[in-house]
Design a protein that fits this description.
By secondary structure, the protein is mainly α. The protein has a domain of about 80 residues: Cytochrome c-like domain (Cytochrome Bc1 Complex, Chain D, domain 2, Orthogonal Bundle), CATH 1.10.760. Helices cover about 65% and strands about 0% of the residues. The chain contains five helices and no strands. α1 crosses α5 and α3 packs antiparallel against α5. The chain starts with a helix and ends with a helix.
Length: about 120
């Protein structure tokens, strides 16, 4: 590039525009990732029938089932692993959770913990 007085004047603006563009790309990629994680969590909730008792947003239609929307993510992980390991004999969640891998448990827990009621 040829150096002249106009290049010196435009340099800070160019730097600002480049930094702003990079920031927008970075933030939008995070939003896209969050959308993908939300979509995957919702699909897993359908696949493993969580929504049947706990509702799409973790809000149960019946007092028989707990509301899990907005619960602490680590609490949900620990409970799902507890049920998967059959530590509470006769609980209907044992049969549901036995199919879940650690990865699926993490994704489901994250999905429902981000819901609110």
């Amino acid at each position: 590039m040829i150096h002249n007085k106009y290049n010196d004047w435009f340099a800070p603006i160019r730097s600002f525009l480049m930094a702003s563009s990079a920031a927008i790309l970075f933030l939008s990629s995070g939003l896209v990732q969050a959308d993908l994680e939300e979509e995957e969590g919702a699909e897993l909730a359908w696949k493993y029938h969580c929504i049947t008792c706990h509702g799409e947003d973790g809000l149960a239609d019946s007092t028989r089932y707990p509301n899990i929307g907005g619960q602490n993510q680590m609490y949900l992980v620990s409970r799902l692993k507890y049920f998967r390991d059959g530590k509470e004999a006769g609980n209907q969640m044992n049969a549901q959770a036995v199919l879940l891998s650690d990865e699926v448990i993490e994704k489901l827990a994250t999905h429902f913990s981000k819901k609110s009621y």
